[in-house]
Every structure is written in C-alpha cells, then in structure tokens.
Amino acid sequence: MTETVRKRFGLLGRNISYSFSKGYFTDKFNNENFTGCTYENFDIPEITALPEILKNTLNLKGLSITIPYKETVIPFLDKLSKKAELIGAVNTIKITKKGTLKGYNTDYYGFKKSLEPLLQPHHKKALILGTGGASKGVAFALDELDIPYTFVSREAKENAIEYNRINATTFDNYQIIINSTPVGTSPNVDAFPLIPYEFFTEKHIAFDLIYNPAETQFLKKAKQQGAQIKNGLDMLIFQAEKAWKIWNK
C-alpha cells in the first residue's frame, strides 16, 4: 500500500528540467526521513498558469520560484515578507492553512552567506551583471554587507551602465564581479557575458549565480587571470534550507 502524500512542494519556472531543486529536496526527504513529502517541477509557459496549479495540486505547502517568474509572480500573492517587498523579487512562497500565499526572498540570504567568507578588505565595490529578478536579491545582500554596487545592462538604464562601457578603470574600481544573468547556463555552456576578462586580477572575485556547469566560461576566463571564483551551488543550498524553514514554521 502506498503512503498518502501529506505535504507537497515544488519549483515553478520555465524550462526547468535541469533544475537543482527537485533533486536536492527529493534527496533531503529520503535521507532525513521526511516520509510523505514530495517535490515536483511545475514547468509553465506563462505565470498565468499558477492559479490552475494551486487549484489542482492537493496538499501543496510551498513553492520555489525561478527564472523567469521571480517578479511576475508578485501580483498573484496575498502577502510579502518585509524583505521580499524591499527587494521586489520572490523566490519562495509559503501556502498557509487558509490557502493564502506569502512571498519571501531567500536568494539574498543564500548569496550573502556564500559571498561573505571570500571578502577581504580590498573588496570594496561590486559590479552586478544583469538587472533581472536574481540581481535584486544580490543587490539587497550587498546593501546589508555595506558594499556599494553598480548594475550592468544590455541597454542604457537609469541605474545601470552598458556592457560596452566596462574597461580597465572599471576593474580598478570594482573588485567583485557578479554574473546574475542566465548566460552560460547548461546547455549553452559556451556562452559568456561580454566583458573584458583580461582586466581580472588576483584581487578580484568572480561570482556566478549559475551552478550548472560548475565552472562557466565566465568563471574560467576570470580564473585564467588569477581571480578568485565561486559558483552558485552553495548559494542555492543556503537558500533552499532557508525556504525549508519558512515552509515549516
């Protein structure tokens, strides 16, 4: 006789068959004996499919949110945590007993916890490549760490510089370069953000939010110049554990 599923969790995103979360939580439930818990992928073409999922998925207690829905999911929620509201992006949803949806951001926590051990006194400013939902959690974490930052965007924006404006002086002024774009994610492993990698030095940190592949072209090119590199795996684990606590509190 199969045991009834008592608690269901899942990942909401687009083209997420590669996802870390399903494997991570399935292993966690098996290894830590959370019988009756399952984790599944909800791969949807548009965020407008969310109400249908909520209606048809019994015992759904929590969702992780990934690209490209971290911002567009917000209008579907009943409440936001204070930090998610300040950040303007959500990657974790708790579904209460009454069926209300509360949005949280655990990305910023995962990023902060992952970056902090690498920081040295000379790491004074950060450049964030990309302006999407993931970049917002990164920016919030840098605010908490008192590290000034500048966004880099493909087109001119009020609070961002364009990629073609990055030069040797930029690298002198910014010692932490963070890729918050999906450029270089498997299967497009040959792609990389278009920045002048020759200006990386051993004084720089190159941090990529991507975890698959473990070493992206962005990280390889930075490492060749002596930079310290870090991928997004630890960040993902930290944010996943934080989400688990939120779902169970």
TrEMBL record:
Q: Does the keyword Oxidoreductase apply?
A: yes
Q: Which residue positions does the secretion signal occupy?
A: none
The biological process GO terms on file are: aromatic amino acid family biosynthetic process; chorismate biosynthetic process; shikimate metabolic process
Involved pathway(s): Metabolic intermediate biosynthesis; chorismate biosynthesis; chorismate from D-erythrose 4-phosphate and phosphoenolpyruvate: step 4/7
Molecular function terms from GO: NADP binding; shikimate 3-dehydrogenase (NADP+) activity
Matching entries from InterPro entries are given as: Aminoacid_DH-like_N_sf (IPR046346), NAD(P)-bd_dom_sf (IPR036291), Shikimate_DH-bd_N (IPR013708), Shikimate_DH_fam (IPR022893)
List residues of the Shikimate dehydrogenase substrate binding N-terminal domain: 11-93
Task: State the GO CC annotations.
Answer: cytosol
Entry keywords, A to Z: Amino-acid biosynthesis, Aromatic amino acid biosynthesis, Oxidoreductase
In terms of PANTHER family, this protein maps to:
BIFUNCTIONAL 3-DEHYDROQUINATE DEHYDRATASE_SHIKIMATE DEHYDROGENASE, CHLOROPLASTIC (PTHR21089:SF1), SHIKIMATE DEHYDROGENASE (PTHR21089)
Q: What is this protein called?
A: Shikimate dehydrogenase
